Amino acid sequence: MAEVLLSEEEKYYLVLGVAQDIRVDGRSRLDYRSGDVEVNTVTNSHGSVRIRLAETDVIVAAKVDLGVPKTETPNQGIIKFLVDCSPTASPDFEGRGGDQLAETICRILSSTYAKSSSINLKSLCIVPKEFCYIVDVDILVLQCGGNLLDVIAMGVKACLGTCEIPRASGTRYDLGKPVPVFSKDEFQFDYLDVSKAPVIVTLPRVGRYFVVDATLEEESCSKGKLAIGVAPDGSITSVDKLGKACYQVRSIAASVQMAAKVGVDVNKVLSDRINKLKLSKLHSAKPWPPKPEEGMDVE
Amino acid sequence: MSRNQEGEAPLISGGSRRQVSLFDLRVRDEFANDEAKGSAPVSRAANYVTPGTIVTKEMGFMRGHGTFVNPSDQSLVASVVGAVERVNRLVTVRGIGGVYYGEVGDVVVGRITKVMQKRWKVDINGRLDGILLLSSINLPTGELRRRSAEDELGMREVLKEGDVISAEIQSVYNDGSLALHTRSVKYGKLGPGTLVKVPSSIIKRRKNHIHNLPCGVSVILGNNGYVWISPLPNGRMPGTNLEEEDADGKNTVLEEIRITKADRMAVARLKNCIAALSKSWLPIYDTSLMYAYEASTKYECGELLRPDVMQEIGELVRQQMALEGAGS
Predict the structure, then answer these.
(1) Are residues B56 and B105 in the same domain?
(2) Chain B nearest-CA residue for A247
(3) ipTM for the whole complex
(4) What is the pLDDT of residues B24-49, one digit of tens each?
């Protein structure tokens, strides 16, 4: 993770501030910074979102492709994640510098979304064993201002939630093999159901306290952090430890409790914003080519 | 995290000011609307140019920094965004934003990046690192003598990597790097506090750049765009830069410095005010800072991070400054 250089005095000020529950920018330990989210930033993808939380800036784009389901899960689609830490985000990411971080983030996302409860992968299957959707989620980190993992997880959820998946209108048989048939109308699509998808709450420990939405400075004052995936109902989907810290069981339990509480709130706000984004997408959509009449689907 | 610190379970919710977390994420569309209705028309000074603007078509002007000569018609064209400056026949465009060009006598805030032989390298937001020579600091004991080999060995005890200092620019070297000095009680190593980075061009040049504000907070407005905010008087770490007369050997330990909640709140508020001023691209100096601070009092400190609140504060400060006829 991108680290910033701090003096002993700055660290002293920061850590004691966290203990007094007044962080450097006046937030309490549970407060997030404010951010904004924008939809359709990458026009040639099926769904894309640019999400900013203070200085952290991430673009998430999803591309839907047709593929063959995995043999062990013949009736499920596939979601793949790819993270790219751009060197513009931090000089540390230059060359192969960001690879390790990118890999870690990929792994955490895949493990959180692999839970059958988070997203119904069966809805991405078209013909069992033969055809399914492969959703490639590309994540580009433009700027890293702390709390990268949470922002990426929010972006991924918003991106999957607003991703337009073409609707297969049926199957036809070609040489005895089923082949999916798609409508030529680009406005016939489905949204993925992300109402159970998790967000990640990262809790770095600054001094003796866990904080939510840490800045880069706060992150460099903490040895390690716990990244906790939280579903909208408050259930925990994953717990990962990042960095070189060791935790006692009860402090993990306490942090999981805290994350669950915070995660429910974040999920609530995010779901509301996803609905708003869907609406704004509808408004901004320009029908081109002009919408054909109903039932004109060419097969 | 060491084992013994791990011993006690961390306090999570107990003692927290708020039991619920604040999370605010805006959809970009509504945000754009807010911007459209809120902002006042910005008057643009005539001598501001963007890259490609023809600065002059007349012959007989010399090409300075930030300009180039268009080979087809020999006109002088700006290569950066900024203000046109003219000294006799030399035309330059001084870029806004970007890196800091130092001037002798400027107060700067910098961070030590490297300890070298007889000198420290200091990050001061410029094209090149600033240089602080061992001979241009006051020794912590306050003695006035030639620097010995022992002093050179103990340089890291005086200032080490990551330390933040306030300094004055002593001279500019031929290659454009800046020589700093801290040979005054005003300057030296800074104590507990926080650093805010803003574009260097919005710091207004004043007679005084170190202010102890009435809200109990001291602020150092470095000309290089680094602003230091601290609850300690003059922002300085006590006992690190003593003049000969008050060198009583008193050494303040960092752990003994206590900072009250009220002080912390004031520092945080000021930090957010500076961020708001910088976002609205308003000049930063003592008066504008106090206007912003007063305008911010109706909000809670954490609320000042919201973009709409930041914008409102910027707007209020702009109005106030127009009323007083300050800045422009």
Answers:
(1) no
(2) B6
(3) 0.84
(4) 777 765 444 444 444 444 444 558 88
Residues of B within 8 A of A34 (CB-CB) are 24-26, 305-307
Please check whether residues B166 and B198 belong to one and the same domain. no
Gap from A245 CA to chain B (nearest CA, Å): 6
Give the count of beta carbons closer than 10 Å to the beta carbon of residue A173. Answer: 8
Instruction: Tell me the mean pLDDT in the region B292-303.
Output: 90
List pLDDT tens digits, range B127-163. Answer: 899 999 999 988 877 777 888 888 889 899 889 999 9
Quick check: is B143 in a domain?
Answer: yes
Nearest-Cα residue of chain B relative to residue A54 = B305
pLDDT in tens, A66-77: 999 999 888 889
**Domain boundary residue among B135, B170, B189?**
B189
Cα–Cα distance, B272 to B283 (Å, whole number): 15
What parts of chain A have a pLDDT lower than 70? Answer: 1-2, 186, 283-299
Q: Say whether both B136 and B251 belong to one domain.
A: no
pLDDT tier, B327 (very low <50, low <70, confident <90, very high otherwise): very low
A277·B1 Cβ contact <8 A: no
B79, B142, B171, B235 from B185: Cα distances, Å: 41, 10, 19, 11
In chain B, residues with a C-beta closer than 8 Å to the C-beta of A32 are 21-24
At residue B27, the pLDDT reads 74
Residues of A in contact with B5 (CB under 8 A): 208
Q: Which residue of B has its CA nearest to A251?
A: B9
B-interface mutation test, from A15, A16, A36, A280, most B Cβ less than 10 A away: A36
What mean pLDDT is predicted for residues B306-327? 85
DSSP helix, strand, coil percent of chain A (3-state; round to 5): 30, 30, 40
Closest CA to B217 of B276, B268, B287, B284: B268
Judge: B193–A13 Cβ closer than 8 Å, yes or no.
yes
Q: Which CATH number does the domain housing residue B127 bear?
A: 2.40.50.140
Q: Regarding the domain with residue range A8-282, which homologous superfamily does it belong to in the CATH classification?
A: GHMP Kinase, N-terminal domain (3.30.230.70)
| Domain residue spans of chain A | 8-282
Measured at the CA of A22, the angle between CA A20 and CA A27, to 5 degrees, comes to 150
B261 CB neighbours in chain A (<8 A) are 20, 22
With b for 16 or more beta-carbon neighbours within 10 A and e for fewer, the A15-33 pattern comes to: bbbbebbbbbbbbbbbbbb
pLDDT tens digits, one per residue of B218-262: 999 999 999 999 998 877 777 666 554 444 545 567 777 888 889
Q: Residue B182 sits in which domain range?
A: 101-189
B 73-112 residues with CB < 8 A to A: 111
Is B10 inside a domain boundary?
no
Tell me the per-residue pLDDT of A255-296, one tens digit each, with 9 for 90 and over: 999 999 999 999 999 999 888 888 877 766 555 555 555 554
In chain B, the residue whose alpha carbon lies closest to the alpha carbon of A267 is: B23
pLDDT for the residue numbered B242: 59
A-chain residues near B162 (CB < 8 A): 5-8
Q: Which of B15, B24, B254 sits opposite A12 (nearest CB)?
A: B254
B312 touches chain A (CB under 8 A): no
CB-CB under 8 Å, B31 with A30 = no
Structural contact between residues A214 and A247, judged by C-beta atoms closer than 8 angstroms: no
